[in-house]
Amino acid sequence: MTGEIDTAWELEVAEFYRSLGIAQGPGDIQYRLIILVLAKNGVGRLTKFSEIRNYTDGLIDRGNIGSKMKTVFQLDGLVKRVGRGEYVLTEKGAVAAEFIQKSSNYYSDIKLTREIIDRFP
């Protein structure tokens, strides 16, 4: 994954999935932003906690991000901690990131379909 992460778009996508009752994974803005930042750097490449915070600070409390890194990402094997505040995305994490990216694409398709239907007389 390359390019910037649009936090407003990711928040909109997360809200859509939460409205469907999906509060984990695609519906969790913390999860979405963390995994996308890790994927942006790539598998096996170092991501610093400060890079993640660049995207999450406006939306999420700092303590929540650290807790999420430990309880979800490390325990599930999505990342490996290699130093203080330094993480590396694993292959398993790359699969999770691809799923999150595809969930964004799906939401985009749904949104477009809704807009087309709304234009019908």
UniProtKB/TrEMBL annotation:
<dbReference type="InterPro" id="IPR036390">
    <property type="entry name" value="WH_DNA-bd_sf"/>
</dbReference>
<protein>
    <recommendedName>
        <fullName>ArnR1-like winged helix-turn-helix domain-containing protein</fullName>
    </recommendedName>
</protein>
